[in-house]
Amino acid sequence: MILTAAGVVVLLAAAASGLYVLLVQPGRKLSQIAEKFGQFWDDWNGVEDRPGMPGRPGVIVRLESIEEQLRPTHGTSLRDAVNRTESVSAGWAPKDIMQAADKVASAFQTSTQLAVLEPVTR
User: Fold this and answer.
1) Which candidate, 76, 42, 75, 74, places its Cα nearest to that of 57?
2) In sequence order, what E strands does the chain have?
3) Which of 27, 26, 62, 21 is nearest to 45 (CA)?
4) Count helices and strands in the chain by DSSP H and E runs
5) How many CB atoms are closer than 10 A to CB 57?
C-alpha cells in the first residue's frame, strides 16, 4: 500500500479528529464534573476570607448555628421566644383571642378608611 502526500494528510486529520473525540470531549466533561465537585466541597467545608470576598462557613457550622436556636439558652434563642409566647398565651380563652382579633380588625379598617381620600367636588 502506497500513501501519497494527500493520503498522509487525510490519515493525520482522521487520527487528530479521532483523538479529539476520544480524549478532549470526555476531558471537558470530566473537567465540568470536577469543577462541580470542587464547588460542593467548598460549600461543605466553607471558604476562608479572600481579598474582596468574604468567607463562608461550612455546612456543619451552619447546621450547628441552627441547632443552637432550637435549644433553650435562657432568653436569646428562637426556642426561648416560642416558650415565652406559649406561656403568655396559655391562659387565654378563645373569647379573649376573638376580642383581640376584633380590635385588630377595627384598627385596620379605620386606618384604611383614613388612607382613602375622597375626591373634592365643587
Assistant:
1) 42
2) 46-47, 56-57
3) 62
4) 5, 2
5) 13
Q: For position 27, what pLDDT does the model report?
A: 84
Over its C-alpha atoms, the chain yields an Rg (Å, rounded) of: 35
At residue 122, the pLDDT reads 57
Written as nine digits, the cell of 121 is 367636588
Q: What's the Cα-to-Cα distance from 72 to each of 25, 63, 76, 86, rounded to whole Å?
A: 55, 16, 8, 14
Residues of the chain scoring pLDDT < 50: 117
Cα–Cα dist 61/121, whole Å: 65
- pLDDT per position as a tens digit, 77-86: 888 888 888 8
The structural domains of the chain, with segments of one domain joined by +, span 71-108
3-state secondary structure of 52: coil
Note the pTM of the prediction, 2 decimals: 0.45
